[in-house]
Amino acid sequence: MAKQEDQFKKVVSHAKEYGYVFQSSEIYDGLSAVYDYAQNGVELKKNIRDYWWRAMVQMHDNIVGLDAAIFMHPTTWKASGHVDAFSDPLIDNKDSKKRYRADVLVEDYVGKLDTKIEKEVKKAAKRFGESFDKAQFLETNPRVLQYKEKGAAILKRLGQSLEKEDLADVKALIEELEIACPLSGSRNWTDVKQFNLMFGTKLGASAETAMDLYLRPETAQGIFVNFLNVQKTSRMKIPFGIAQTGKAFRNEIVARQFIFRMREFEQMEMQFFVKPGTQKEWYEKWKETRLKWHMSLGMGEDNYRFHDHEKLAHYADAATDIEFKFPFGFKELEGIHSRTDFDLKAHEEFSGKKLQYFDHEENKSYVPYVVETSIGLDRMFLAIFSNALQEEALENGTTRTVLKLPAVLAPTKAAVLPLVKKDGLPEIARQIIDDLKWDFNVIYDEKDAVGRRYRRQDANGTPFCITVDHETLNDNSVTIRHRDTMEQKRVKIEALKEIIKQETDVKTWLMKM
């Protein structure tokens, strides 16, 4: 656990030092759980968003995009159930005066069981060597099975208690597991209470006439209220999807773990409208499709797993999370939900307007069912960044810090370095920059020795360094160095564009799906 915490601290520190993420309003001592994306962070975030959009919208004939307003009519949130049922179970520690999400305390306890399982696997792998069969070990080892069974039982009870809103049993579970306050070690807990997560605001010229509004807690409702507008104007036939990226806001009392859980965050969602009765089939298809998208980035199969929900939301008949192994354990990265026809029917009821699809093949109208895929852009950023940050021991006995971002997502694709700041080398480097910047985000770097510049670009996640030296003056060639392998090759300047494209082109990466 201490090793995980140490790694996470390095992630947070590196994100600031290399211009990826800053604490919001830092000069005023910051604002809790609110962060700003810096010069490199905004590029990485944009690239992740574009990579999702290309895969979700551009590569599907039956999925279109939408950008709905953050402000929505307040009845929207009554219809969706957020006004009455959008809350978290909170518990306070009487000694530390700290507030926690009760369900997260229990889930973290189960996460420690997962850590114990990993330790058993590592010990067995070391003991058995090449003959070790991990899958068989996980299925047969008594201690592992005991940990698994205990974890599953705890999560099942938690899910059932939350579904029945039996908050007394949630507290009882915390006490039975002897879960202590992470800060003080105290087990002196208050009762569990529900807390609504929506931010309220007002719309109007004066306080007397202003309308009470909410900042949207999710982007999905903007899609549902526009369902018929999009379907009719684009003449879409069932099945079809509407995709959207955008900001959402939740008054997270226990916001934590850097950008993993924030009060202002960005979602990438797609609502897929299907014929009633086919939703489970599409649910399985989208589970497979979305996992393939994650795998295309090459962050390791062992870092992903599905976690089916024990407690289903009021609108769902099936739900699962794609969990990623963050430095603090496996946590939700993307949710895939079969939402049935709850949303459209609820908006029909509250608006008095029909939200139905006329099926020409069946010659009848019906309210479509919906399969949702929803991923947190900020969480995806953290997953990619934390997975990429590595320290490598080199053959000469030194170490290097390298940010092995997938090249397709890297903020800067190449840094162009003149060997010295004279003899016409900076001018050639600038010419290369002027040519490449039409196709790629590239930078010029002339400060310090070349070796130090290489290390700086490694830590910044730049896939390529291009060095202009005195030979360039004679043969129009440069040295190109690859971040991950540190391999260096001599190539012609005119070949640079194609070399960089081969490594960073979206098509190359998405074809892995």
Describe this structure in words.
With 513 residues, this protein is α+β, with helices and mostly antiparallel strands. The chain has three domains: 1-74 and 197-392, Bira Bifunctional Protein, Domain 2 (BirA Bifunctional Protein, domain 2), CATH 3.30.930.10; 87-196, Herpes Virus-1 (2-Layer Sandwich), CATH 3.30.40.230; 394-510, Rossmann fold (3-Layer(aba) Sandwich), CATH 3.40.50.800. Helix content is 41%, strand content 24%. The chain contains 18 helices and 23 strands. The strands form seven sheets. A seven-stranded mixed β-sheet has the order 3-9-10-16-13-12-11. A five-stranded mixed β-sheet has the order 20-19-21-22-23, sandwiched between helices. Strands 5-4-6 form a three-stranded antiparallel β-sheet. Strand 14 and strand 15 (364-366) form a beta hairpin. Helix 5 (102-128) packs antiparallel against helix 7 (142-163), helix 5 (102-128) runs parallel beside helix 8 and helix 7 (142-163) runs antiparallel to helix 8. The longest helix has 27 residues, at 102-128. The protein starts with a helix and ends with a helix.
